[in-house]
Amino acid sequence: LQDYINRILIVFNLADKHRNILVKHINEQVDKRLQDRNMYQDLWKRHNDLLQELNEEKNIDPYNIDCTVIADKLAIIIYASILSTSRSSTNAFIDLASRPEYMQELYETTTHC
């Protein structure tokens, strides 16, 4: 049974599917940025985003970038941001539910907008 479950998990691993999609899009962006950088050289305008920061890390060769490593780092950041957002939203709803005296005022505020 364990062998069967492991085969199913390997074949239908949704995390790998999403990772492959992310790698594909990152690879396209990295290739485009490298082409633009080579074409415009000194006139090239550096992108001010996380992907550019990950491309310019000290231990990464700018012409031999492993997009799977970047995809893994981005996936961790995305997961952490989803987790922190959902936790903060849950805490806000719990705080609101524990103070029913604010409900009428909030309801009136939303209906008058």
TrEMBL record:
InterPro entries for the chain: Cyt_P450_sf
Top-level taxon of origin: Eukaryota
Signal sequence range: none
The name this protein goes by in its record: 15906_t:CDS:1
GO molecular function terms noted in the UniProt entry: heme binding; iron ion binding; monooxygenase activity; oxidoreductase activity, acting on paired donors, with incorporation or reduction of molecular oxygen
